[in-house]
């Protein structure tokens, strides 16, 4: 037979397994509610798999369960104070319904019954600690991304200065080439020995310069990289064959 004890004024009350108490049980701010019971399977005391004291707010339907500390002998105990209760129970305008739930595996018959109403008497001088509302995930306002402007070309004057410097270096390059003894007579032999390789190699060099020009003027990086990869592969393969032809002439003593 369950017993209920209020340790504040040391009052006892015997509960019935089939009938709820006619009067509400009061729980003040300094009170401690202790519920003692012995669980049995038939006439034999036995520890159940689950034993709870379940409190239910009759207005909102909110439930909170408190686990009994049950020994092997079936003796169970649960202690309760206002600090253990959700803040919704502390602000409820009606008494909280208290039920006992006991269940086990196997063929044992489960038990669930209302045993009393809990009247929570708050001290109005003590502020109620209400936690912040939990985060609720929902659709937010539409986000409009503002992208910064793409990179701009440098001023034309700078471009013209560097272009003039490159063009001005070409005569110097050809002059040094002639001074060091460049031999243009082998152009025909080179084209005759490996015409496709030499044509593709020099053509790929010119094409790569054209790609850089397009990237500078109008193309973006995604247009430039595939074209540069194709032209670079052609330059590598044709250049290898062209250099092999040059090596053959060098080994033959032709300079």
TrEMBL record:
<dbReference type="Pfam" id="PF25147">
    <property type="entry name" value="Ribophorin_II_C"/>
</dbReference>
<keyword id="KW-0732">Signal</keyword>
<dbReference type="GO" id="GO:0016740">
    <property type="term" value="F:transferase activity"/>
</dbReference>
<dbReference type="InterPro" id="IPR055374">
    <property type="entry name" value="Ribophorin_II_3rd"/>
</dbReference>
<feature type="domain" description="Ribophorin II third">
    <location>
        <begin position="33"/>
        <end position="119"/>
    </location>
</feature>
<feature type="transmembrane region" description="Helical">
    <location>
        <begin position="199"/>
        <end position="218"/>
    </location>
</feature>
<dbReference type="GO" id="GO:0008250">
    <property type="term" value="C:oligosaccharyltransferase complex"/>
</dbReference>
<comment type="function">
    <text>Subunit of the oligosaccharyl transferase (OST) complex that catalyzes the initial transfer of a defined glycan (Glc(3)Man(9)GlcNAc(2) in eukaryotes) from the lipid carrier dolichol-pyrophosphate to an asparagine residue within an Asn-X-Ser/Thr consensus motif in nascent polypeptide chains, the first step in protein N-glycosylation. N-glycosylation occurs cotranslationally and the complex associates with the Sec61 complex at the channel-forming translocon complex that mediates protein translocation across the endoplasmic reticulum (ER). All subunits are required for a maximal enzyme activity.</text>
</comment>
<dbReference type="GO" id="GO:0006487">
    <property type="term" value="P:protein N-linked glycosylation"/>
</dbReference>
<keyword id="KW-1133">Transmembrane helix</keyword>
<protein>
    <recommendedName>
        <fullName>Ribophorin II</fullName>
    </recommendedName>
</protein>
<feature type="domain" description="Ribophorin II C-terminal">
    <location>
        <begin position="147"/>
        <end position="250"/>
    </location>
</feature>
<comment type="similarity">
    <text>Belongs to the SWP1 family.</text>
</comment>
<keyword id="KW-0808">Transferase</keyword>
<dbReference type="InterPro" id="IPR056790">
    <property type="entry name" value="Ribophorin_II_C"/>
</dbReference>
<feature type="transmembrane region" description="Helical">
    <location>
        <begin position="157"/>
        <end position="178"/>
    </location>
</feature>
<dbReference type="Pfam" id="PF23860">
    <property type="entry name" value="Ribophorin_II_3rd"/>
</dbReference>
<comment type="pathway">
    <text>Protein modification; protein glycosylation.</text>
</comment>
<dbReference type="InterPro" id="IPR008814">
    <property type="entry name" value="Swp1"/>
</dbReference>
<keyword id="KW-0256">Endoplasmic reticulum</keyword>
<keyword id="KW-0812">Transmembrane</keyword>
<keyword id="KW-0472">Membrane</keyword>
């Amino acid at each position: 037979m369950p017993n209920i004890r209020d340790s504040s004024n040391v009052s006892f009350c015997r509960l019935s397994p089939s009938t709820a108490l006619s009067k509400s049980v009061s729980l003040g701010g300094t009170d401690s509610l202790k519920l003692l019971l012995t669980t049995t399977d038939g006439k034999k005391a036995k520890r159940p798999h689950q034993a709870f004291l379940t409190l239910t707010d009759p207005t909102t339907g909110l439930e909170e369960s408190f686990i009994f500390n049950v020994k092997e002998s079936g003796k169970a105990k649960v202690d309760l104070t206002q600090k253990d209760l959700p803040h919704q129970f502390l602000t409820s305008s009606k008494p909280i319904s208290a039920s006992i739930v006991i269940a086990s595996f196997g063929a044992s018959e489960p038990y669930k019954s209302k045993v009393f109403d809990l009247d929570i008497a708050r001290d109005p001088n003590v502020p109620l600690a209400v936690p912040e509302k939990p985060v609720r995930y929902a659709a937010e306002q539409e986000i409009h991304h503002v992208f910064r402007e793409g990179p701009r070309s440098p001023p034309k004057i700078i471009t013209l200065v560097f272009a003039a410097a490159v063009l001005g270096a070409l005569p110097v390059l050809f002059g040094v080439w002639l001074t060091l003894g460049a031999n243009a007579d082998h152009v025909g032999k080179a084209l005759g020995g490996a015409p496709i390789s030499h044509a593709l190699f020099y053509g790929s060099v010119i094409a790569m310069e054209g790609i850089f020009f397009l990237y500078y003027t109008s193309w973006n990086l995604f247009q430039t990289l595939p074209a540069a990869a194709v032209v670079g592969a052609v330059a590598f393969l044709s250049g290898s064959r062209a250099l092999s032809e040059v090596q053959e002439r060098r080994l033959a003593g032709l300079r």
